[in-house]
Amino acid sequence: MGEKKKLQLLPWFWFLFGAAMALKYGYEKFRYYPVLDDWIQYGAFQLYDDPFRQIFLNYSYHTRPLASLFDLFVWGKFWPNLAGALVIITALHTASCYLLYRIFDRLGLPLGTAVAIIFGLLPLGSEATYWLSASSRLVVGLFLMLLSLYLLVLSFEQKKKIGYVAGFVIVQLLSFGFYEQIIALGAACSFLIMLWKQRWRLLWLPILNVGFIGIYYVVFKEGGNTAERGQLVPWERLLVHTGGVFHEFYDIVVLLHTKFYSIGFGRGLSLLLKNHSYLYLFLITIVALTIGWLAFRMADKESRLRRPGVEILLGIIIAVVPLSPFFILDKSGLALRNVFPSFIGLALLVDGLLLLIVRKRVGRAVYGMLIASLTFIFTVVNVAEIVDYKNVSQADRYIAEQIIALGKKEHKINGKYPVYLFGAEPQMVQVGVSFLNHVRNATSSDWAMAGVMRAVGQNRYYPSVTPVSVKKDIIIASRDMERGLILGLEPDLTVVPLRPQKKRNGDYHLVRPDGTRFGIYFTSKQYFRKW
What we know:
This protein is an alpha/beta fold. It folds into 2 domains: 3-388, no CATH class; 411-530, no CATH class. It contains 21 helices and 8 strands. It has a 4-stranded mixed β-sheet. Strand 7 and strand 8 (527-530) form a beta hairpin. The model has no long low-confidence stretch (mean pLDDT 90).
């Protein structure tokens, strides 16, 4: 196929890719369902009289300063309806995919359609691209990083080079204010581009930006959680620690990733059929098939211009670089969101390998069918992910509303009394894939419970609620047990008041209003067991 024909098809590909991105998170009509940190970052923080002084200057300026400012003055302004924020984040993610293609085109390294499908739709990225507490850092930061790289490659071609170079420096520095992994990835990618184009005199610019953000972190290293999270790995453990990070990366990208399909795909299809969402399923099918057909049609010209060896090598480098902060930080571990910056590299790696099969027409047909299948599967799995977020968020709201009502009834929700929620587990609602804080309930921490209580009750003075799980030991003083608000969380998410009855040995039997026992708190052993 000629270059002219391919250029005619490209707008259709990007239009349909945008439709796929909309279908990915549009099943609930782009409603956003807050979980965990969302409640406090976007709900409770908006209740303060002067968020800049009371929150930013006293609490959140130490790390990711621009992300913290955006929480208060951009995303938080959408509360309680965060649909607008989700639409913007999804649009930025889509634009990031387009920028990635434009950058590589101008470098003489055109990419295949598989890159957009993997980078944009891979369900493994749902925590990083849907959960606003993460996407407001990762997606926004990655978009600014790619925009800065696009300005950099434009500076190689345009007459007004100084303006583009200045734009590159400014936008890159802005991207560094959103997430530490973006710092590593942005600096490394700009180095690679400068080396590829032999622009040796520009190499000092990303070094300067890294220096600026490094100085910022050093100056404020004692504030917030920087002092704890910023501990470096002792050099004698560096090799072993790095190997551990790679092992975590493998566990997530390979082992855990398969659960999104073995569990999530069937759940997604079942949800669509059970809810009679036939039109939505039809749209997913049509978009996927058309994208696959376009991939088949465009693969011929793409295969002649591309360099699979270079793409695979770059993919490996760009997949590993975002992990570098974890190589040197001691008290850190990979969450699902932390593999998202590596998606660009993983997409390049897979696309380079797939290029080897598109040399002949049969291979291109297989390529097209594969792209169609991936688009369909990824989108359906993402539907299941969205429903998980919805169910968890609604459960958290329901629990908080009951606690507030009971607290008001007992006159113990004014911050003067401790509040304990016995039977609260980190995962009260079943989800497809459970890993660390992926789609976790607010009952997983007192921090999250404080956020949901204050956001739902629209009162920043509501007390924190301490979840008491059967899986963790917890120290509760007798005074707090006898004077505090003692509640129990039933499996059906009903919150009931409990009456603690102290026994001779000091243990407490926790009794429901109907006289039945809910559980026992063993004072000497400091743990709780349900009856």
